[in-house]
Amino acid sequence: MEKRLYNFSAGPAVLPVPVLERIRDEMLCLPGCGASVMEISHRSKAFIAIQEAAKQRLIRLLNVPSDYDVLFLQGGARLQFSMIPMNLLRGQSAPAQYVLTGSWGKYAIAEAKKEGATEVLYDSAATNYDRLPSDAELKIRPDAAYVHITSNETIQGVQFQRDLNSPAPLVCDSSSDFLYRPLDVSKYGLIYACAQKNAGPAGVTVVVIRRDLLERSNANLPGYLNFNNHSKEDSMWNTPPTFAVYVLGLVTEWLETTVGGLAAMHKINQEKAKCVYDAMDAFPELYQGHARKEDRSLMNATFRFPDEATEKAFLDQAQKLGLDSLKGHRSVGGIRASIYNAMPMEGAKLLASFMKDFASKRG
Ligand SMILES: Cc1ncc(COP(=O)(O)O)c(C=O)c1O
Q1: Would 288 be classed as within a structural domain?
Q2: Are 274 and 325 in the same domain?
């Protein structure tokens, strides 16, 4: 078999090796089923147990209160950009407020505008999305239909590492930092995340929603787009993405039993990010960080070089060491090291030592 690389891709992203091994072992024959998980009915006892176990693990990991539901949907986080305003904004008297701290927030508000009134509550465009607002900068309307934030802006690498207090329902796109730390779910009205960065493969999107918000959905919404159908049918209104849910279940099992929960995962994530940022900060003229220090993401470290030739040399040499997919998003360039939950500590350490080496050799 070829050697695995240290995969710094922003998503779809690295998965825990024990999870991949388990998938391989169960690929032909899921225990007790005589077939793979992709070949059995979603209404079979075996699959219902898999989906329910994944849901219960998420509830335990995130300490989800009982007045919330956890849904497994399709269409990625992008569908949620539309589905959330369709369900929570249509018919409301006050606008939805959006906090724009990077590209994904901008994409989200563009879709919401098609559904109803929106307001920009904060926008860091003037500083090229390098920062987050303080609490004092967020003048949230208590009557807002909801307030939307992107907890981690994957492209710019800025991350809210705190749970905001909001008098209006707080809606959070947590696609690129889902399950990276313990969360106070009770402070949110709705949390959503596509799985393919921190929680599994592409194909399933998790929505954690406070049940009272389900009452807002208009019965005339197209069936798939109405949260109530998914809630009432336990995410079986239509055929769920069975393989993706199965893998998400294995990732959450790994988080619970191997890592030891989200507090332990958070500590590891802090250590990995510190490793990379310390290497960056040791050579500030070479590694020019995009995000303001206090707003840096633990998941996506972004920086640029003084010139393109240096960037190319860095990427070429990194690749030779097995440090893969470090190129930044096409819209901002530079380097983006995505150090999600499943990136092993050795990967972060190897990247940091290469960064120090590369900088020292250039003098
Ligand atoms: C923060 C954030 N939101 C939304 C998305 C879009 O997710 P999807 O491609 O699953 O629709 C991404 C993914 O790339 C993301 O990083």
Answers
A1: yes
A2: yes
- At 288-302, the pLDDT tens digits run 999 999 999 999 999
Q: Is 78 in the pocket of ligand 1 (CB under 6 A)?
A: yes
Catalytic residues, by residue number, are: 104, 173, 197
Q: Is the CB of 173 under 6 A from ligand 1?
A: yes
Choosing from 259, 278, 301, the residue where a domain stops is: 259
Q: Residues 42, 242: contact at Cβ < 8 Å?
A: yes
Ligand 1 centroid, distance to 1 Cα (angstroms): 31
**Closest CA to ligand 1's atom 14:** 11
The model carries a pTM of: 0.98
Per-residue DSSP letter, 136: G
Domain that holds residue 280: 261-362
User: Do residues 315 and 192 both lie within one domain?
Assistant: no
pLDDT of residue 333: 85
For 229-243, write each residue's pLDDT tens digit.
Answer: 999 999 999 999 999
Q: Cα–Cα distances in Å, from 218 out to 94, 221, 247?
A: 17, 6, 33
Q: How big is the chain by its Cα radius of gyration, in Å? A: 21
